[in-house]
Amino acid sequence: MNSADMAFLVPNPDDLLRLTTEEQGILILRLLFSGIMNELTGPTRSGQVNQRNFFNRNNDFAAQPKYGSDKQREVDKALLKAWSWLAREGLLVSDPSPGPGWFILTDEARQLGSRKDATAYSSANLLPRDRVHPAMVEKVYAAFLRGHYDTAIFQAFLEIEVTVRNAGGFPQELVGDKLMRAAFTPGKNGPPGPLADKKLPPGEQEAMSHLFAGAFGVYRNSTGHRHVPTDPGEAVEVIMFASQLMRIVDRVKP
Question: Which of 19-33, 53-67, 93-107, 218-232 has the lowest mean pLDDT?
Fold first, then answer.
């Protein structure tokens, strides 16, 4: 397997192994059409590709493989299974005329393997997984890896919403910025919210309430009610902001 090229699209082998077989198969197609494969491995103009060349590390003329030896065997096994799925679904059709191991990529395979589609996986290294809050990392990172940036943002703020609601004992029907106001209100005209930080001056408590309510009004509401196309770099910034909000919740919740 040309592992250096696969590592370009999915830098972390654990993330690759978390994908379903179908997603791994589509990733193989995206790799074939991404323009980073060498000409021995990638499809020719006739749309043919050789399985042995694809999985033969002797054809890896690129940089040193980024996947460690402990993960490479797992990755190879998963991608061999994904290749079989591609053949079973008719995306790769066996072509014995040039010799054993040759396949033809169908029109459907070309559509799934466009270079544009591959950019989502190559953007995965933009999001520092170890810096995303543990409570949201699995759902958020999985969506981000697939290029569903609006979904990743929505999931990040959904985790904050659920945590705030449970911490404050609020009813299920209280959501979004209204929930944040109720949780973080400084209590100028009544009792403070259960997540108001009593150690802060009243002005900063009120600013905290504005911060959470404003974040939900801008990010959570927009992704919850309509499709919001998001640049991967912008999505990373919003997700890291959401992680910081979640850490504040951890600090102030009862």
Answer: 53-67
The reply to whether 111 and 213 lie within a common domain is no
**CA 117/CA 30 separation, integer angstroms:** 7
- Side-chain half-sphere CA neighbours of 13 within 13 A: 17
Domain boundary among 122, 155, 183: 122
Q: How many residues does the chain have?
A: 254
The verdict on 111 and 160 lying in the same domain is no
State the total domains in the chain.
Answer: 2
Place of tokens 């609601």: 165
Looking at the fold, whether 136 and 105 belong to one and the same domain comes out as: no
- Side chain identity at 159, as an amino acid letter? E
Tokens of 9: 């699209």
Q: How many CA atoms lie within 13 A of 209 on its CB side?
A: 24
pTM above 0.70, yes or no: no
Q: Which domain holds residue 10?
A: 3-122
Closest CA to 61 of 84, 43, 37: 37
Residue that is written with structure tokens 């004992």 in the block = 169
